[in-house]
Design a protein that fits this description.
Structural class of chain B: alpha+beta
Strand content of chain A: 25-35%
Structural class of chain A: alpha+beta
Radius of gyration of chain A: 14 Å
Shape of chain A: elongated
Oligomer: heterodimer
Helix content of chain A: 10-25%
Strand order of the largest sheet of chain A: 2-3-5-4
Largest sheet of chain B: 10 strands, mixed
Largest sheet of chain A: 4 strands, antiparallel
Shape of chain B: globular
Number of helices of chain B: 13
Helix content of chain B: 25-40%
CATH architecture of chain A: 2-Layer Sandwich
Strand content of chain B: 25-35%
Largest interface: A-B, 42 and 50 residues
CATH class of chain A: Alpha Beta
Radius of gyration of chain B: 25 Å
Mean pLDDT of chain A: 95
Number of helices of chain A: 4
Number of strands of chain B: 19
Distance between the termini of chain B: 30 Å
Chain lengths: ~120, ~450
């Protein structure tokens, strides 16, 4: 096992729907999807962001090797109501990818080299 | 019977304010059959309502008219049709300007322009509420009646059928109001391929194509995280082109002479963009299941999409309603080395204390330090040692305009009355901005669809 950032395993895009942020997380190599689906639970994502967000929902897209998360009450009201710089939640994608996970040795060959 | 087996539908704008050269490039850099232009974001309608209130000739996406003047001769020569939700809240006004451009370009008698009207229900709201339509906020559950006196715009998201009718009647250009974004792309598929209203799987494929075509270059390498440093020639990024087949499969691509990149990874980033429950991607015409999408490489900068399954749409349509919800302002100053964060934090404390002493109350005050924590918040960790500079950003909101106005006068004084090495105030006082909030709601679709009208006029 070794501790790596999620950024080494996956890329992501985030966007807004009102006060809710969605983050789509996509593994860089298909072989990493079962591991991602196992470790990146809704509870873990909620714990990562803490009080900055409300409830977190998770949806699976095995066909795209992707997970989709909805982070509610995350944008200070969202849209023009929000006082945040990132009122559209565009940078929540990489905020999530900061997370560090324990990667099993057999999956090491599938991660991007310079993102450990 | 399909009119054609294959059509190429190009996306030309991801929002009002997107790259002006993109639709021109789509028409001139290679062959396409349709150009679709999405101009309307959630707050755009309220801006357009205000513009029309000041000047009854306004209220539509003004950029669309000169664009049509520029590309209409190409569109006629190469038989390209244009579908745009540029009409905003003054669809006929927009149409009349476009007809004028067509005549100026010497195309009198050669261009038919179709319009779809009836999605603007601002004037109908009191009657709809009286008839028992509560239009409850989908997030808060509150009935619309509570904010009715502050509503600034109200439009229904409608689907493809009226756009298809305009195309069937020979319109070269179709201008709509709040047509749902993906329908701009799948309406020409229905028109050309003759898909039935309940051909759910093909319509769902069309909805997926529309999702990939409605955000401009986000499908072709713009704002793409995966190997972003190696995406070529973004200065001439090609916007997406949907190469669609009558069987419901399609290829996402871009013009060969353009920049950007279309790969499975980039396309997947756009598929998950602003996605809710992937099993239920709802449009007015079909519900698509994104878990059935299959992506394959199909040559350089070509990704093939197949396998999409769908089902019938809900009985209710979504409404886009905006209402006045107070005022806000954002003040910024830049603090230089050494200890920029400590200085900015002290300035923040001082300005808050001064507002407090003035007895001013704000619903929200938010402080961010740009260069340290304005995007990732607490996840950014402590400020890095020896940070060269940071921007202090303080934002306030209140329903009391005077309180927000006074805040805008409390930023510049910090330059001479607070911590040192401060700059970045030359832009003048912060501006008081009106908060126009969004009220998502649903309504029985029959209330809307019975009111939609299609008209086709010739230049």
């Amino acid at each position: 096992m070794s501790l790596v950032s999620l950024f080494a395993l996956a890329h992501a895009r985030s966007g807004d729907k009102g006060d809710t942020v969605n983050i789509g997380v996509i593994v860089r190599q298909a072989q990493l999807y079962p591991f991602l689906a196992a470790v990146l639970t809704a509870e873990r994502v909620k714990a990562h962001f803490g009080e900055v967000v409300g409830a977190v929902e998770r949806f699976e897209l095995p066909n795209l090797h992707a997970l989709n998360f909805l982070l509610h009450e995350a944008l200070d009201g969202g849209g023009t109501v929000s006082l945040m710089t990132d009122a559209q939640g565009k940078t929540f994608s990489t905020a999530l990818l900061r997370m560090r996970v324990d990667l099993p040795a057999e999956l090491q060959p599938f991660i991007a080299g310079d993102h450990g | 019977m399909p009119r054609r087996e294959r059509i190429r539908i190009a996306g030309g704008q991801g929002f009002w304010g997107d790259l002006l050269s993109a639709p021109v490039d789509q028409v001139r850099r290679g062959p396409i059959d349709y150009l679709i232009l999405d101009y309307l974001a959630e707050v755009t309608m309220s801006i357009l309502q205000k513009q029309r209130a000041r000047d009854p000739a306004q209220g539509y996406a003004r950029d669309f008219v000169p664009l049509m003047g520029e590309i209409l001769p190409d569109c006629v020569e190469h038989d390209i049709r244009v579908i745009a939700n540029a009409g905003g809240v003054n669809i006929e006004g927009c149409r009349d300007q476009v007809l004028g451009e067509a005549r100026s370009a010497g195309l009198a008698g050669r261009v038919k322009v179709g319009v779809v009207t009836g999605d603007d229900i601002l004037d109908r709201l009191p009657a709809l509420i009286a008839a028992g339509h509560e239009m409850r906020n989908m997030d808060t559950g509150r009935p619309l009646a509570e904010v009715l006196d502050r509503v600034q715009s109200a439009n229904a998201y409608f689907g493809a059928p009226p756009v298809v009718e305009a195309l069937d009647r020979g319109a070269r250009i179709v201008i709509t109001g709040r047509c749902t974004d993906p329908a701009l792309t799948y309406a020409p598929m229905i028109h050309e391929f003759g898909w039935a209203r309940d051909d759910w799987d093909r319509l769902a494929a069309g909805a997926v194509a529309g999702h990939l075509n409605e955000c401009g270059a986000q499908t072709t390498g713009g704002n793409s995280l995966v190997e972003w440093e190696r995406i070529p020639d973004l200065e001439i990024v090609g916007f997406p082109i949907i190469d669609a087949r009558a069987d419901g499969t399609f290829v996402v691509t871009r013009h060969e002479s353009s920049g950007g990149r279309v790969t499975r990874a980039v396309v997947t980033e756009q598929l998950v963009y602003e996605l809710g429950d992937p099993a239920r991607y709802v449009t007015p015409d079909v519900v698509a299941d994104f878990r059935t999408i299959r992506l394959e490489d199909n040559g350089p900068d070509r990704v093939r999409v197949s396998g999409v399954r769908g089902g019938p749409p809900p009985d209710r349509l979504k409404l886009s309603i905006s209402y006045h919800d107070g005022y806000k302002a954002v003040g910024t100053l830049v603090y230089g080395w050494p200890d920029p964060v400590r200085k900015a934090q002290e300035a923040d404390r001082i300005v808050r204390a001064r507002l407090e002493r003035l007895g001013l109350r704000y619903e929200r005050i938010r402080t961010e330090f740009v260069g340290w924590n304005s995007t990732h918040g607490p996840l950014a960790g402590p400020p890095p040692a020896d940070l060269p500079e940071v921007q202090l950003r303080v934002a306030v909101s209140s329903h009391d305009r005077n309180a927000v106005e006074r805040f805008t006068r409390e930023i510049a004084p910090l330059v001479l009355t607070g911590p040192p090495t401060v700059t970045g105030y030359a832009g003048g006082r912060p501006r008081v901005q009106e908060i126009v909030a969004y009220w998502p709601a649903l309504i029985d679709r029959r209330e809307i669809e019975s009111g939609l009208r299609v008209e086709v006029a010739a230049a």
